[in-house]
Design brief:
alpha/beta; Aspartate Aminotransferase, domain 2; Aspartate Aminotransferase, domain 1; seven-stranded mixed sheet; three-stranded antiparallel sheet; binds pyridoxal-5'-phosphate
């Protein structure tokens, strides 16, 4: 649908106004959590939805499969995999669940994740252990500071050497709460040497870092397209190494049960999969912006500029990781002490709410390494002034020069409230 020539505005404010949907005035500095759908892609998605409603039978019986295959092929090409090894799923959570729920873990078999693993995925691991009697679940703590990639690889090496029953390792490509790009190629190789299957959680990776699945050669890889590759939500890929096709089952059993690996994931009941058929258009938008070089080049330069300013103005620092392990479009900066906020996850969430309700600033705050850190995202619609407002506000609040809240009451949290989305 989207074959017309695109003329696109320059990155920054104009790009945001013309091509994105966020409401005027909001400082949206958290692309990482849920992504945002560009207007053009959303318009195309709506056209597909209209087409589906023009004649539902025509869509589901005659058009849907061809479009679904186009989407799958486009994603496969984007991550350099064969189409036969790639299926579309709704999100990374579904991708990991699909794999973990397909495995029969035997007595003593263990799953390995880390303390940096995304919480919903940690729960998925816990569930797999609960559902497979006698199996184990290990959560390895990632040591900080990280001096080099090899530090992390060595940690995995030691863990796998001393835990011979690990059967599957869930490994983040880019961690959520710390925005670290993990050396997955080396870890995948290490896993294979220890006869451990690797399940890569690339929720943040497609569009943000290069992915070459033929080169990486994991057992399983899932990654969202709806975060950094501009597709509508929910759209993700699940790659499964050929040798596992026979026993990986989709979460929803439907028409193509046991027919053929990729087809089994098609038509999982009647539902709206227009996000999948919009993939080619979203990837065209991505390429028309200049592709990875232009997009991540802009985003990382913008973030470098503003994070340098933060570190100076706040007198703090970045997460202690090497430069080559920093995600290009997400950076972690320690917040200065603020009398108003304790260092807990509940307080991080209250601070996020205060910033949102009082100042219309959306950032992601995490409680890591005994500090509050902001995870800042940048995308082609962001520009320096948005970050400046945030930098100045935090500086002034930390120096007690101005209050955080004028409009609403913000009270310290009891300390252990259950707020799962704070860790998105
Ligand atoms: C590392 C990681 N894994 C999994 C997810 C879940 O993604 P989704 O909610 O799209 O399933 C996220 C979400 O941010 C994430 O950061």
């Amino acid at each position: 649908m989207g074959s017309e020539e695109m003329t696109l505005p320059p990155f920054g404010q104009e790009m945001r106004e013309k091509e994105f949907c966020m409401r005027k005035g909001s400082m949206f500095l958290n692309h990482g959590s849920f992504g945002t759908v560009p207007k053009r892609v959303k318009d195309i998605q709506k056209r597909y939805i209209d087409k589906m409603d023009d004649h539902p039978d025509d869509w589901f019986r005659r058009n849907n499969l061809g479009k679904w295959k186009e989407g799958r092929d486009a994603i496969a090409a984007f991550v350099n995999a064969d189409s036969e090894d790639v299926v579309l799923v709704q999100n990374a959570t579904t991708g990991v669940n699909t794999v973990l729920k397909s495995i029969n873990f035997k007595e003593n078999d263990a799953i390995l994740a880390t303390d940096n693993t995304y919480p919903a995925i940690q729960f998925t691991c816990e569930h797999a252990k609960a559902a497979n009697s006698g199996s184990q679940y290990y959560k390895m703590d990632i040591n900080y500071p990280i001096i080099s990639e090899d530090d992390v690889v060595e940690q995995y090496r030691q863990f796998l050497s001393s835990h011979p029953h690990v059967r599957l390792a869930v490994i983040d490509h880019i961690t959520s709460s710390t925005a670290v790009v993990m050396p997955i190629k080396k870890i995948i190789k290490l896993c294979r040497e220890h006869d451990v299957m690797s399940m890569i959680d690339g929720a943040h990776a497609p569009g943000q870092v290069p992915i070459d699945l033929k080169d990486l050669d994991p057992d399983f890889y899932t990654g969202n397209l709806h975060k950094w590759a501009y597709t509508p939500r929910g759209c993700a890929l699940l790659y499964v190494r050929r040798e596992h096709h026979a026993w990986i089952r989709p979460l929803v059993t439907s028409w193509y049960y046991l027919k053929e690996f990729t087809m089994e994931f098609f038509m999982q009941g009647t539902r709206d999969d227009c996000a999948y058929v919009t993939v080619t258009d979203a990837l065209k938008f991505y390429e028309d912006l200049g592709g990875m070089t232009a997009i991540t080049g802009y985003n990382s330069s913008l973030l470098d500029l503003v994070t340098d300013r933060m570190v100076t103005e706040w007198g703090t620092g970045k997460l202690p990781i090497p430069r080559d392990m920093e995600a290009p479009c997400m950076k972690m900066i320690r917040l200065p002490h603020m009398d108003l906020y304790d260092v807990t996850t509940a307080e991080a969430y209250r601070l996020m709410d205060d910033l949102f309700y009082e100042h219309d600033i959306q950032v992601q705050i995490f409680c890591v390494l005994d500090n509050l850190y902001v995870r800042l995202s940048a995308n082609v619609y962001n520009h320096t002034e948005e970050y400046s407002l945030f930098i100045n506000l935090i500086r002034d609040v930390s120096l007690n020069k101005r209050p955080m809240c004028l409009k609403r009451k913000s009270e310290k949290s009891p300390g252990n409230s259950d707020m799962p989305f704070s860790e998105k």
